[in-house]
Amino acid sequence: MPFRLATAPAKPDRPNEDFAAVGTDAAVLLDGAGTPPGTESGCVHGVAWYSHTLGGLLLSALSSGDTLAGALASSIERVNRLHADTCDLKHSDTPSSTVVALRWDASELEYLVLADSSLVLDRAGTSPEVVTDDREAVVGAELRKPMDALPTGTPEHEQAVRDYVAALADHRNRPGEFWVANTDPGAADEAITGRVGLDEVAAVALLSDGATRLADRFGLATWRDTLDTLADAGPDALIARVREAENSDPQGQRWPRAKNHDDATVVYGHTPA
């Protein structure tokens, strides 16, 4: 299955906390949950290290024959062991990440989605199927209102972002709330999983939420438009369109958001004919 991949950091002077990679029969995309400036995480390595390390281990584990959830759980445990001696893994802001994992054989695709990155399946003859985990958005809808009422980039907005992140932490990885990958391997069992016949899918797209903004936050494109852009012009073109929209609303007045720009990553692949 041929793939194209593109990624762009939110700011050129900050690490890209997204991670994506493709193997011979699997693909992964992770979006690390960044801590706002001035917020401690208890981890000396940082969010980019966490998402990149977990992503690499997960891609390797997907070839083990384990279930997707089992591969994610074992990868979380391995990352824990890598920094348990140097970092406070019980800190409320310890690094975390979304996960999209895809694995295929000659007849079938398996997928796993945890937190708010998305998998889009281009099903022949019907509307795209979007698999995303919206539990964080549901929990955060009320919590984010003070942040969304302020212009992006102002000191008041930056403080509101820190307050929002702190409030959201009280709901993370708890039954009935929302789940992400961080230190609890049990989060893997809370992921959305599924299977689909390879002959039912024309193309697949794995996207971090920084790359889905045109469709799910800005309302400037449908998911069909998104897939068509990827097919015709590629992942870089989709990210460029996101950046153009963001630049047209630098203070978040039209589209309130925590950050003007977010790390944006796309993995796009065609299934065999």
TrEMBL record:
**InterPro entries (UniProt xref):** PPM-type-like_dom_sf (IPR036457), PPM-type_phosphatase-like_dom (IPR001932)
- The PPM-type phosphatase domain covers which part of the protein? 14-234
Pfam families per the UniProt record, alphabetical: PP2C_2 (PF13672)
The record's listing under Gene3D superfamilies reads: PPM-type phosphatase domain (3.60.40.10)
Taxonomically, the superkingdom here is: Bacteria
Q: Which SUPFAM superfamilies match?
A: PP2C-like
Q: Where is this region: Disordered?
A: 245-273
Q: Which residues form a coiled coil?
A: none
Q: What is this protein called?
A: PPM-type phosphatase domain-containing protein
